[in-house]
Amino acid sequence: MPAALTDEIAAAAARLVVDEGMEYAQAKRKALRSLGRTHARQSELPSNEQVEDQVREHIAIFCADTQPAELQALRRLALVWMERLAEFRPHLSGAVWRGTATRLSAIHLDLYCDDAKSAELALINHGVDYDVGSRPDPRGGQVDMLSIASRCAELGETVTLFLTVLDHDDLRGALKPDARGRSWRGDVAGLRRLLAEPAEATP
């Protein structure tokens, strides 16, 4: 039963990720509730890799004709912002890096800063409006997460960018791979390589 529940959660979460643009953690929680459960043991929850497998399957069945072009558009917009923020050693993460993004997906950039407020000052100096939130950091604390609304001409709509402001020392573990050897994020050079390859390629 635990394995069956895990598969059900992964499949339901994947639908939420693709159809509503949810992040994995939020999608897993909502998927659990949709199955009539308020909680589950950690062993019953699917890993992000398991959810991602289901996301790729869902995309292949329902979005194969539109998703590759949407992914490329988001990657090109991400590259624009990474070049603008080059001084903060930006790394692209999330669905846009992993190749599972659709037009509903946000762009996630990790910035590695010597001074936590330097990224905000750079946005202010460039006249960019942003909101400030927070998220857990690699050491169990909280770090700033800046959100920006950026127009994507290719998609004809506004895309949300989340800029997570990390300490420069965190850069050492930035390219740590997942359980299958694929990277969770990549730098500007890595993104340019992906843009030069077919849209369905995975990092």
SSE inventory with pairings:
Blueprint: H1 2-20, H2 24-34, H3 48-62, H4 67-84, E1 91-93, H5 94-98, E2 107-113, H6 118-125, E3 131-136, E4 142-152, E5 157-167, E6 185-186, H7 188-195
Helix pairs in contact: 1-2, 1-3, 4-7
Organism: Pseudaquabacterium pictum
Protein name: UDP-N-acetylmuramate--alanine ligase
Description of the molecule:
It is a single chain. The protein is built from 7 helices and 6 strands. By secondary structure, it is α+β, with helices and mostly antiparallel strands. It has 2 domains: 2-62, no CATH class; 67-195, Beta Polymerase, domain 2 (2-Layer Sandwich), CATH 3.30.460. It has a 6-stranded mixed sheet with strand order 3-4-5-2-1-6. It is globular and about 50 Å long. The two termini are 33 Å apart. This is UDP-N-acetylmuramate--alanine ligase.
Task: State the gist of this model.
This protein is an alpha+beta fold and 203 residues long. It has seven helices and six strands. The longest helix has 19 residues, at 2-20.
Shape: globular
Overall number of strands: 6
Element-by-element helix/strand order: HHHHEHEHEEEEH
Give me the Rg, rounded: 17 Å
What's the N-to-C terminus distance?
A: 33 Å
Average pLDDT metric: 90
With strands numbered from the N-terminus, the spatial order across the biggest sheet is: 3-4-5-2-1-6
Protein name: UDP-N-acetylmuramate--alanine ligase
Which labels suit this protein?
203 residues, alpha+beta, six-stranded mixed sheet, 7 helices, globular, UDP-N-acetylmuramate--alanine ligase
